[in-house]
Amino acid sequence: MPTLKEEPEEVAEAAAEREEAAHSGLMQQMGLMIRAISASGVGKTLVLLIIAVLLVIVLTAYGQIRLNRWNKPFYDALSRRDFHDFLLQLGVFFVIAAVLLVLNVAQKWLGEMLKLKLREGLVHDLVRDWMLPRRAFWLANAGPMGVNPDQRMHEDARKLCELSADLGMGLLQASILFATFAGILWGLSQGFVFRIADRDYAVPGFMVWAAVIYAGMGSLLSYWVGRSLIPRNSERYAREADLRFSLVRVNEHLDGISLAGGEPDELRRIELHVGNVLAATRRLVAGLTNLTWVTAGFGWITIVAPILVATPLYFAGKISFGGLMMAAAAFTQAQSSLRWFVDNFSVIADWRATLLRVASFRRALTTTEVLRDFDSRITYAEGEPGTITIEDLEIVSSAGWDQLKERKVVVRAGERVLVVGAPGTGKTLLFRALAGLWPWGAGRIARPRDEQIFYLPRGTPYLPRGTLREVLAYPLKVEGFDAGAFVHALSRLGLERLAPLLDVTSRWDRELSQDEQISLAFARIVLQRPPWVLVDDTFGSLDDETLERVIDVFANELERTGLINIGRAAQARDPLFSRVLHLVKAPAGKR
Prior knowledge:
The protein is α/β, with parallel strands linked by helices.
């Protein structure tokens, strides 16, 4: 097993969550989640479910009061050896138990539906914000909060909703039960008097105070021992997400790993993540073990505590044996309600850690456009149809500061422009800036109003899972094109063999070679015929035959389509391009 250590991005993620916890309290995070769920469209359903849960819990509390009162006549009948009354009280018990059973089942169903609706609202809100135009890309490049968003929207959101429902219902039920049984305890012990050295000391409702003090001691001790569980749970979830991402990444790149013989290196990386998960889990286990000393210890004492507290009333002759059992049962109910914090502290710590992760993720989603601490921003505007205007464009990143040498550029419809970059310049960042994905820098970009721009990034293009017809139409609807247009688009790029597979659903990124995937991207352009195409150095990766097909396509079907290709200096001799622009490093003083 390799040496356990946290990788730099893992350290940054943990630091970001600690900073989030420091600047956002529990109430702010809960308010953030409540607003998210309320805005998702399930707010009314949740209100109705909460009202129904409250009603069922109140009825259950009343049933338990009736059951508590049943203790006195039942045990008194036993002490008198009254068989007839014993049978009568046994029948009463079965009636009360049957009603409570129905209420328990109803509460379980309502609780599960509450979890379902909470998750529906929260996940829909997170996914909707994540899938806002360019938001996911900005978040992924905005720092450690963008690490493993799938974990936060899937597993963390699920746990948060389930734990919130369980803890919320448990706290509500504990509060109602304490309020009801505290009244019973007060009535039983309101006239209790301690006698010390021939002097009487009245302690009205001493059984209530005994329950409060007993549960309060357990709660304070539980908090003191178990407070470290919150960061330990959060760390474990982060490490679990890293491990899952590592496994998925290996599975997605099995061919490259196998061809390079990289299995030992990938094994080392996976074992590192496994080691981090195990180390985080060990720290969590240690914390849970320490907490168990408190919760289990109080659990064992609770077996005799109710009898010990009620015994003074019994020996003072104020209650019968049946009254003793009734008082003991009432004390058990009251202090168990007060012990809710003790019994659930490990779950509360888990919930608090999950709330922190989901709340920090949602806050990042809603503020991600201001996360970069750069003074300048590229201004984006809607310009006149048929023109793209670029003025004083500069691009800033942690790697440096680049600028377009030509300070004002106007590209008109049908014009083909090549942008070449000096060594060390960020050509891909220029592509992202023109596409609106990288707003950090300076200058102004005016894109044509109401005109589609087709973006073709560097490397293998994205092919969504679906039929080949859907892949070609993406992100538009298949119904918007004639059936013959799909076959024509494939044939123009030499992909005729795929025509019979147009309605087959598959992982086309695995079925097709990289060259075929790039050709398919150009076939998509032929089908959709956008007025503008922005390319990030894809022409340089085409073989001669495919390049000839692409040039022919732009000369015929796409003769009115404007093209901006961020490519290489050698392409300046290509007759396809009528103008060349230059990306250069900014002057030393500005950098």
